Amino acid sequence: MAQGHLIPYLALALEIEKKLGYTVTFVNTPLNIQKLRPSLPPNTSIRLIELPYSSSDHNLPPNSENTDVLPYPLIIRLIESSLSLKPSFISLIQSLTHPPLCIIADMFFGWTVDIARDLGIFHSIFLSGGAYGFAIYYSIWLNQPQLKTDSDEFSLPDFSQISRIHRSQLANNAVQATGTDSWSVFFKTELALTLKSDGFLINTVEDLDFIGLNYFRRKTGKPVWAIGPVNYSLTYKARSNKEAGLSPDLCIEWLDNHQEDSVLYISFGSQNTISSSQLMELAIGLEKSGKNFIWVIRPPIGFDINGEIRSEWLPEGFEERMREKNRGLLVRKWAPQLEILSHKSTSVFLSHCGWNSILESLSLGVPIIGWPIAADQFNNVKLLEEEIRVCVEVARGNRSEIKHEDVVRVIDLVMNNKKGKGEEMKKKACEVREMIKDAIKEDDEAGFKGSSVKAMEEFFNMALLMRKKTKLDYQ
After folding, report:
1. Contact at 8 Å (CB) between 176 and 72?
2. Which residue in 31, 301, 360, 418 is deepest, having the highest Cβ count within 10 Å?
3. Model pTM?
4. What is the tens place of the pLDDT at every residue in 417-441?
């Protein structure tokens, strides 16, 4: 019940329909389904089903069915309330004329594993993020090693293949975890259930993310298929229906007036923001760096993330100076990210490192400056910086101190160092771009088929094999 999960699931549904010809039933709560409906292309056979749900029944504000409309402290209550969907989900499956070939569920709906098993239906978890990032996420919540040491650094007991984790790389809920808090209780139950699934589909590429993929293979003893990138924007080139702060055409026109590889693009995603002091230091750093930039700017923590930008959050006259010098473009609410990243003027992406943004950036050969804010983003930066080497981290979280000198130093390192770090990152990002292209390549004249394409076919072949064993008709 979050946009960062729903959109990849919609992309997966469309891929299954388009490439394999199956009928897909997409299930969620009423408001989430209504929000997704305009994103369906015409002539699709995908069925959107609303399960009864009322947020008010769970001490949540009215019409609160998605994390993007809730303050952070209430998100766990929303997640816990998803258990109330279980009876209506069972009724839905039993009401179908034919049992489904398979049930593909999110990691937050571990309870669907037992339902599928009771009904003899093949089940898979689809992880919409990367394998490496979610492997660390699983390990931390299932083992909670941070509670067993006073050290700032610790190893993961079931993931020795990676370097030690620092406490500053933990999301806020993991830092605050006690072992008996709501997040801990929920994850210990639901994540453990997901490990009993018949397999894992993961939104990643085999050669890019093999360390994380092998963690899940060891942990579950079940098949794990890398089927990515599954990304709605990349696949369908669709523009968001969100209210844009600036039209896509104006963004592209602005980029057209700048030299190749000269613009830094900055975005923390639709649900993340930084503190007011960090906002100020970032602005000062951008100005002092002397580099061109497009910044999707949002109010700092403690304020409505979709509200207006106040002048006191930025250096006096900052936006006007950037506009007059044609050096910086500040965009409110939403920007055409895919169009910006694919433009020849864009050099580097300063990102919160959500997995969808990472896939978009690397699919286009754009290296990254990492500033993780929440969830698996810290782990994603660790993968990008330590293993793939397409990223430099500039800051962690939205509560730590950052100086504008740090911003200037990292921007200079990545954008000025043509024969050093910056050039190495760009070269590696372009190699990853080709790796991703190969993974999703359909049969060509030479008979080559990408690893992600083959993995998707293998998944459905296994589901069909299980159906034959259970001797159930499927739809």
Report:
1. no
2. 360
3. 0.91
4. 667 889 999 999 999 999 999 999 8
